[in-house]
Amino acid sequence: MKTPISFRQVLSVFVCLLATGLAGQSLPSFASANRKPAIRSALSIPRLERAPTPDDFKDLEPGTALAQKMAHAEDFRQSKPTDGAPATQRTDAYLGYDQSNIYIVWLCHDSSPNEIRSQLTKRENAIGDDSVEVIFDTYKDQRRGYVFASNPVGVQSEGLWSEDGGTDNSWDTVWNTNGRRTANGYFVIMSIPFRSLRFSHEDMQQWGFILHRSIPRNNEETFWPFVSSKINGRLNQSGTLTGLDHISPGRNIEVNPYGVWHASRSLNSLDTPPRFEGEKLGGRMGTDAKIVLKDSLVLDLTVKPDFSQIESDEPQITVNQRFPVFFPEKRPFFLENSNYFDTPYPLLYTRNIVDPEYGARLTGKLGKVSLGFIFANDRSPGQSVPATDPEFGKKATFMIGRVNYDILKQSTIGLIYTDREFDGSFNRVGGIDGSFKWKKNYFATFQALVTSTRDLVGNYSAGPAFKAGGGYSGRRFNANTYFEDNSSGYQTQVGFYSRPDYIRFSNFINYRWRPEGKILVSFGPNLFEGTNWDHSGLRLDYQFNPGFNFEFKHNTTLNFFYNAARSHLRPKDYNTLTAVQDYANGGRGFYLQSDYFKKVSFNFQGVWGNTPNVIPATGGPRDAFEQNFQVSVTVKPINQFQITTTYLGDYWQDTIIREQNLYNTHIIRSKWNYQINKEMSVRFIGQYNTNLARPAFVALDTTKNFNYDLLFTWLLHPGTALYVGYNTNLSTLDPTLVNGPNGFVQRPNVFINDGRQIFVKASYLFRF
What we know:
Layout: H1 7-23, E1 42-44, H2 65-69, E2 71-73, E3 77-80, E4 91-97, E5 101-109, E6 131-137, E7 144-150, E8 156-162, E9 166-168, E10 176-182, E11 185-193, E12 204-215, E13 220-224, E14 239-245, E15 253-268, E16 275-293, E17 297-303, E18 358-366, E19 369-378, H3 380-383, E20 396-407, E21 411-422, E22 425-438, E23 442-454, E24 460-473, E25 477-486, E26 502-511, E27 520-533, E28 539-552, E29 556-569, E30 581-584, E31 587-594, E32 600-613, E33 622-638, E34 641-654, E35 661-675, E36 680-693, E37 703-717, E38 720-731, E39 739-740, E40 743-744, E41 752-763, E42 766-767
Parallel strand pairs: 1-14
Antiparallel strand pairs: 2-4, 3-13, 4-5, 5-11, 6-7, 6-12, 7-8, 8-9, 10-11, 12-13, 12-14, 15-16, 15-41, 15-42, 16-17, 17-18, 18-19, 19-20, 20-21, 21-22, 22-23, 23-24, 24-25, 25-26, 26-27, 27-28, 28-29, 29-30, 29-31, 31-32, 32-33, 33-34, 34-35, 35-36, 36-37, 37-38, 38-41, 39-40
């Protein structure tokens, strides 16, 4: 069957190809320094007899024999805002190592030290601060790396870098920082244990590495060696670190036991009638373990893990959504080398493994081969049904296998297999994929899959899926084109979101002029076009989305956009439809984000336009008008205190009777964090949710909910921590707990407590 292609799509592809071709040509530049500076990009670092201390670098200068012995990197260059220009502030980095650690001493001079942004806050929360960062490509394969960053007072952040996805800060490990502001800048000493890294077992190591300093008030990103924003990627521009002789993480065995004690009261809504359950005192114990094999393979084991989330998910609107909403993973067991499982299709979404009883993971790299295997069970399917259900108490099992092979300089070929089994049902997915980069700016990806599924009643389905695309990524021009084809039998229960029976073709292009002035840094247009069809040739969705973006100093961005879109909904999607219906599904909006003020940062987004209401009270989906607003403000009144308040508002109206409100959703969340010192903090989160519905027009009850929690944290380092917390939830439930047509009968002004908990959690990390 031939998929229909519109003239506008042909035009979009032509524009993308034209932009890609132009991007390879020499273009006039507003910047005076537009070529790559000729600076050295290799360092041989010495073995030190002791760890460096602040006394070795008084007044931001190397003052002792040990300091002067360390390898020295200077002449940092800008990647942004002016590609290739010298840094506006001097940075010196000194490197060395001993048998157990690698050390980096950052001397960050600043002509306006009062403008340095730094706050004493919890780990990985120093957003918007000045910072220094190192990326280690320990296998020197230009594909993945370890990121270690610190703000001026030593607040840590670490993550996993991938050339396709950037930094994933969900990964944690043990390392040390000592940071302090001075009269003329600040210094940071990083001490990174070799046992916190994975690398080959060669006697003489050669690593790729990049040193990076960020000065947010100037939108300035500086690097050593120079990392040009004209080139797609970072690790392909990294320097070479030599001199690492006979290093090893040692036996590198970690055992991380924990204990949780709690008293709780909660609502059991599975039984009929619903009832409250409580326990005077409860608890559980479990452990995680990590074993490093041959320096580069990591075996993670867990028994009775505690996957409670000490930090709750950020709020998202989930009402009246046609497709699932993505929530990021926060649980430690799944995070080491998590980017080894990345593919064009998101085939591993670990939030689908809700409540495992045990699990095992093996990840790592041997030569050019990257490996990833996961096995875990999941108790949640048998816990989410009443005790009278035949599935009650049964468990699902998950198995995932991933192998990647490096080819050329920055390209890979990979295989993946996923399997979920539950009470005779299964979902199995297998496929091959590839990622390719060439000529500094060009890239392409593909993935081909086959799936096989049997549901709980024995129905069987199967089918292939395919995705491919490519484009150009540069400093001024960016363009890409993607094609995706999912058969009607395609399904993944291990990955994120399965939408079967559609063909997608999309194109994207943007261009940036870069005056790089005192106020305006860059500006330019964006254009996205995408269309989905089913395999009968019916257009399902269409988007034509132009926009315009402005970037200002002090990390301030303003974007305007317009979306001309339509959607066809079918009886197979919504059984209340008797025929295919066409709906308007587009609008207009803007986004504003700014860190202009040192003590206040904010972002504001507004979107409004026509979109289908897929939860009407009667009949099939019908046209509606939606206004969506999201506002977030962070205030830092003093150095150790931070308040972030977020508001999400979603307003729906009938398009025929514009004054007729269907429902309004409001979410207000405020997070208050006081950092006593680097290890101890006190946090309060309060969140109010409400759906104000008209049941005559929409299949929703009016609900109101208020949840708050208090948490004291003592976090020595990841794995060794003490948490003491209290959580409570108030909802407008009918006190008699009588079931209504849309769930519980709601009373708009009667709040009852349907869940509370007090808990203590302690864990300790043993490293052998």
